[in-house]
Amino acid sequence: MLCLFIFGFCLFFHTYDLQSYAYSTRDIIYHWHLGENSVTIDENVHLAHFTIGDHRHVERVISLSTGNYSRLSTYFTFKRNIGFYLIQIYFPSSLIVVISWISFWLNRDATQARVAIGVTTVLTMTTLMTSTNASLPKVSYVKSLDIFLGTCYFIVFASLLEYATIGYLMERYRNSLVDNRATATTCFYELTENSPIIQRIRAMELRNYTFNNESENDFEVPLLIRRSKNQFRLRSAMIRMSANKCLCSCLRIRPSQVDLISRILFPTFFVAFHIVYWTVYLYF
After folding, report:
1. SUPFAM superfamilies given for it (predicted)?
2. Which contacts of 193-196 are long-range, i.e. CB under 8 A and separated by 24 or more positions?
3. What pLDDT does residue 237 have?
4. Whether residues 221 and 99 fall in one domain
5. What tens digit of pLDDT does each residue of 41-60 get?
């Protein structure tokens, strides 16, 4: 049985023996008549999945229970052609992985497009893995091809989970936004009715003083909300500040940062995997 640990990069050694069944060395002895040139390979002979490498031949005498027999042996080396598997398996699976990264550049609100890309690439990788394993011998150990396809499947599935993570962070963000909007409104009314700073605001207004500068101070922003012209803009600025602070303190990362990290992390990991994979198996 062939060993498929390094399937796609493996070498096979086959032996062809010539021996008499009925005549021992007392009756017949075989020799290679032309020495090293006794066995030649026709240059027009090609195999679909293998390349014939070096070959050598020897003369031996085999001892059996019925006597000694002369044997001529030829050893052939076959190397599997990787080109077929590059075109049919390695290139398509790598392309599927790259396609799954398109979702990292789509808008976070494009739910249908991002989910469609993620699910489609996962199903395509599943089909490719199933069809590939169906055409190979059934073995109980992990093949080199399984490692490559398994890694590609992991990356594609992780790309789908990446958007699920963004969805979770966005939901937390919206909840924080609602909670902080209520807090901001409460602070506005408390400052309007109870804060002594209101008298100074009115005094400045009597002197035709105009407040045009926005502030990130929790006390100054609600006071400037008294101007209806800037009310929505200033309140939104305070809410965004409070929501971002809450989100960063709880999760240490914002939804927008997940895509930015993924755009660098996923390609870097896949390129590093390719370098290690091909280095190990090409020089195994």
Report:
1. Neurotransmitter-gated ion-channel transmembrane pore, Nicotinic receptor ligand binding domain-like
2. 195/219, 195/223
3. 40
4. yes
5. 777 877 777 777 777 888 88
